[in-house]
Specification:
This protein is an alpha+beta fold. It has one helix and eight strands. It has one domain: Immunoglobulin-like (Sandwich). The structure holds copper (II) ion (CU).
């Protein structure tokens, strides 16, 4: 009797694992790295802001805000096609201060993700 119950329990466990494994294999895209990196302090204004993802995705929002929350103009480079990279050039040199780059992207599986890269530009050059 006990062994029969054990067999059923392991059977249920195996079925549960089988449904979990495919989902784990197709993990959605995440931010892999950025330039500037999150938390960087730069000695001069960056010319471009770069994001690299773990897999192709469509970046739907990319905006740069200064410490007062004012949006700074950036220009998206490249097309809107799915890519593992996104680049935006900075229209005007950024004055010293703290900035945050907010991004949102949709992966191939339809998942929307987002994040913030924070960096600072030093007054001393
Ligand atoms: Cu996903």
């Amino acid at each position: 009797m006990l062994s029969r119950f054990a067999f059923i329990r392991y059977g249920i466990l195996a079925a549960a694992l089988a449904t979990l494994v495919p989902g784990a294999a197709s993990a959605h895209a995440m931010l892999h790295t950025s330039d500037p990196v999150d938390g960087a302090t730069l000695n001069a204004s960056p010319r471009a802001l770069n994001l690299a993802f773990t897999e192709d995705c469509r970046v739907t929002t990319l905006r740069l805000l200064d410490e007062s929350g004012r949006e700074r103009q950036v220009r998206r480079e490249g097309g809107r096609a799915a890519s593992s990279k996104a680049t935006a050039t900075v229209a005007e040199a950024l004055p010293a201060g703290a900035y945050r780059l907010e991004w949102r992207a949709m992966g191939d599986d339809g998942h929307v993700m987002g994040g913030t890269v924070r960096f600072a530009v030093n007054a001393a050059r």
